[in-house]
Specification:
Structural class: alpha+beta
Number of domains: 3
Oligomer: single chain
Keywords: Hydrolase, Periplasm, Protease, Repeat, Serine protease, Signal, Stress response
Largest sheet: 7 strands, antiparallel
Strand content: 35-45%
Number of strands: 32
Main location: periplasm
Active site: 163 (charge relay system), 193 (charge relay system), 266 (charge relay system)
CATH class of the largest domain: Mainly Beta
Shape: elongated
GO molecular function: serine-type endopeptidase activity
Radius of gyration: 27 Å
Number of helices: 11
CATH architecture of the largest domain: Beta Barrel
EC number: 3.4.21.107
Length: 515
């Protein structure tokens, strides 16, 4: 995992290509029992027959039927023509390698960081795109990249990935019958990685749109695309997980599959066995840049909502409530008295956001939005983003061991995102922390009104991830204002506590096992 990378499967020139998915209405085939394994009525009436008395007969009620691999040929034949190849030309930009520019990384992150490859979406590598000579002379050379897409309406609307057409100066769409069209980028939404194209054609073959919520882990799915430029390539696998949250991807509950997809498949459809598109292939998890067993698709229902806004407005408007959330694990659930790990834990509230004007508080666990249950924290951003600015969101939250409703007005999302001395520290044995109160200047710098500065960390707190320089703001949802208060609360706490910690301007709950 430390050397793996989560990569958008776009290939600039020779290296980057975007993935496509195709599908065929597959049929499941069940193998009939062998003649020697079958028990006839006559045999059943005669206990002396060998078949009736045979031990461990596969025909017994507990025996599972044997399933063969589905046949995807009809699916590929019927819907393959609706999958297109996309060729993109990018205006040349000077770079150290004279080619495509690598994605910017989070501040302070280098190639030795375990999460480096997660954040490095595979747009390209300097000097390795096929469009430049790699000489590093800073020359401006146009680059090309390949991807996939699929036709969603017969009058020429095509869905693909936003990263396939990013910074495109020209987009060419090629159909399976060899026809080529210059495409217009109607709109592109980087947050969801969905883009909408339009070509001047009619009576085109189209895909069927399915319901990804009905898909299940373990069911067969099919991708059709152009890996490494090989048009209309069909690959198959199974759904390996649903609603998968990925680093730096805030709004998308990805469908995880083991379908072989490679650079060039990006933007193509993921089909179920009914021949319905349930996702857009977008990323792979890889050590090499090629497929290694994990791929991720954007749910098609989410993509179609983006498509509708892009087609009508040319851009996407999302809702926000101005909170930072985190997953609720078993330790945090115990700390807050939740019956089970569920919901989204509010770790901080934007002082200029809508939630700051409501009764929502850090430490609240959001269990539902407008009556829709939030089982996992990854579901909350999608639910809120899907609301129009100005709408009211009724949040069912868990606070102080009970449920209550909090009303928040949804605002428009702005996509532009917005170590101390330990001389007088006090040590808290159960936690293993040395802490001291913040000075007025430190409070102003950190923009907090209270908290304790961590001077040293050891024991349970260090194992949980608390670091020197962290500011402890609360324990089990109660604000911490002094070292003595922290000691008192620890004496009354159980074996699990939740510390609200501020680090580098960000707030997060850290569960600590004191047992």
């Amino acid at each position: 995992m430390r050397t793996s990378k989560l990569t958008r499967t776009l290939v600039a020139s020779a290296v980057l290509v975007a993935l496509t998915g195709g599908y065929v209405a597959g049929r499941q085939h069940w193998q009939a029992p062998l003649a020697s394994e079958m028990v006839t009525d006559a045999n059943a009436a005669n206990p002396a027959t060998p078949a009736a008395n045979a031990p461990n007969t596969p025909n017994t009620p507990n025996a599972a039927p044997r399933m063969l691999v589905p046949d995807f040929s009809q699916l590929a034949e019927q819907y393959g023509p609706a999958v297109v190849n996309i060729s993109v030309t990018h205006d040349g930009k000077p770079s150290a390698g004279g080619g495509a520019t690598a994605m910017p990384m989070p501040p302070g992150m280098d190639q030795n960081d375990p999460l480096f490859q997660f954040f490095r979406h595979f747009y390209g590598a300097p000097g390795n795109d096929g469009g430049g000579d790699g000489s590093g002379d800073g020359s401006s050379v146009p680059t090309r990249s390949l991807g996939s897409g699929f036709i969603v309406s017969s009058d020429g609307y095509i869905l693909t990935n936003a990263h396939v057409v990013d910074d495109a100066s020209q987009v060419t769409v090629k159909l399976t019958d060899k026809r080529e069209y210059k495409a217009k980028v109607v709109g592109s939404d980087k947050a969801s990685d969905v883009a909408l194209l339009k070509i001047a054609a009619t009576n085109l073959p189209t895909v069927k749109i399915g319901d990804p919520s009905k898909s299940k882990a373990g069911e067969w799915v099919v991708a059709i695309g152009s890996p490494y430029g090989f048009d209309n390539t069909v690959t198959a696998g199974i759904v390996s997980a649903k609603a998968r949250a990925l680093p730096d991807e805030n709004y998308t509950p990805f469908i995880q599959t083991d379908v072989p997809v490679n650079p060039g498949n990006s933007g193509g459809p993921l089909f179920n066995l009914n021949g319905e598109v349930i996702g857009i292939n977008s990323m792979i998890y890889s050590r090499t840049g090629g497929f290694q067993g994990l791929s991720f698709a954007i749910p098609i229902d989410m993509a179609m909502k983006v498509k509708a806004q892009l087609q009508q407005y040319g851009k996407v408007s999302r809702g926000r409530i101005g909170v930072t959330i985190q997953e609720v694990n078993q330790s945090l659930a115990k700390s807050f008295g939740l019956p089970k790990p569920t919901g989204a834990l509010v770790s901080s509230i934007d002082k200029n956001g809508p939630a700051a004007k409501s009764d929502l508080k850090p430490g609240d666990v959001i269990l539902a939005v407008n009556g829709t249950t939030i089982e996992d924290s990854v579901q909350l951003p999608e639910k809120i983003a899907d609301m129009r600015p100005g709408q009211k969101a009724t949040l069912t939250v868990w606070r102080n061991g009970a449920k209550q409703d909090v009303s928040v007005s949804v605002a428009a999302l702005n996509e532009k995102k917005d170590v101390a001395s330990a001389d007088d520290s006090a040590t808290h044995g159960r936690l293993g922390l040395a802490v001291r109160e913040l000075s007025p200047d430190e409070k102003r710098a950190a923009q907090v009104t209270h908290g304790l500065l961590v001077a040293r960390a050891s024991g349970p707190a260090e194992q949980a991830g608390v670091q020197p320089g962290d500011i402890i703001l609360s324990l089990n949802g109660t604000p911490v204002t002094s070292a003595s208060q922290l000691s008192d609360k620890l004496k009354k706490a159980g074996n699990n506590v939740a510390l609200l910690v501020q680090r580098d301007g960000q707030q997060i709950f850290i569960p600590v096992d004191l047992g």
